[in-house]
Amino acid sequence: MIRPATAAERDALEALQMRASLGNEADREVLMSHPDAVDIPLAQIAAGRVFVFETNGAIAGFYATLPREDGDTDLDALYVEPNIQRQGIGRLLVEHCATLARRCGSGALHVVGNAQAAEFYAASGFQNVGSFATRFGPALLLRRSL
C-alpha cells in the first residue's frame, strides 16, 4: 500500500533513509561526516509530498517530491529498506510518483541521482540530461517525460 506519510513517521523515514544511504559504499564516509544531510522537512510531509510504501504494517520505502517553477516535479527522495531492495518497490514508488505528478499537470519528473543509481533510473524511464554539483560531489541530472 502506498499512502501519504504522517508527521509522526518523520524519524522512522529519516532512519530508513540513513540505512539505505549507508548501503551505498561510495557515499558512506561522507554521509557519516554529514549526517545532517538526512532530513525530511515536516513542511514537505504536511504538504502531502511524502509517500510511504507500507507492507505488513511496516514502512518499506518512501519517496518525496517538490514542485518546480517550470511546472514539472522533482523526485526529491526515493529510498527502500536495504534488505528488500531489488524487488520492484523502488520502481513501484516511481510509477506512483509519475502518476500523481501527471495528474497535477507535470510534464516531467526530474531527479538528481548518484552514479550507482543510474541503471535503476534508466530502467525506470529516466534519461541522463546532464550533471549536477552536490556537496558530496558530482551527480547525475535525470529527467523522465510524463
Question: Would you spell out the secondary-structure blueprint of this structure?
Answer:
Elements lengths: L1 E3 L5 H13 L2 H9 L8 H5 L3 E6 L2 E10 L5 E8 L8 H15 L4 E6 L4 H6 L3 E8 L2 E9 L1
Parallel strand pairs: 4-5
Antiparallel strand pairs: 1-2, 2-3, 3-4, 5-7, 6-7
Task: Sum up the structure in keywords.
146 residues; alpha+beta; Aminopeptidase; 7 strands
Write a structural description.
With 146 residues, the protein is of the alpha+beta class. The protein has a single domain, classed as 3-Layer(aba) Sandwich (Aminopeptidase). Helix content is 33%, strand content 34%. The longest helix has 15 residues, at 89-103. The model has no long low-confidence stretch (mean pLDDT 91).
- What is the SS-derived class? alpha+beta
Task: List the secondary-structure elements in sequence, H or E.
Answer: EHHHEEEHEHEE
Under CATH, the topology can be stated as: Aminopeptidase
Percent in strands = 25-35%
Full CATH superfamily name? Gcn5-related N-acetyltransferase (GNAT)
What percent of the residues sit in helical stretches (DSSP H or I)? 25-40%
- The tally of structural domains comes to 1
Specify the number of helices.
Answer: 5
Largest sheet, in brief, is: 7 strands, mixed
The CATH architecture assignment turns out to be 3-Layer(aba) Sandwich
DSSP strand tally: 7
> What ranges have pLDDT less than 50 throughout 5 or more consecutive residues?
none
Tertiary shape: globular
Return Rg in Å. Answer: 14 Å
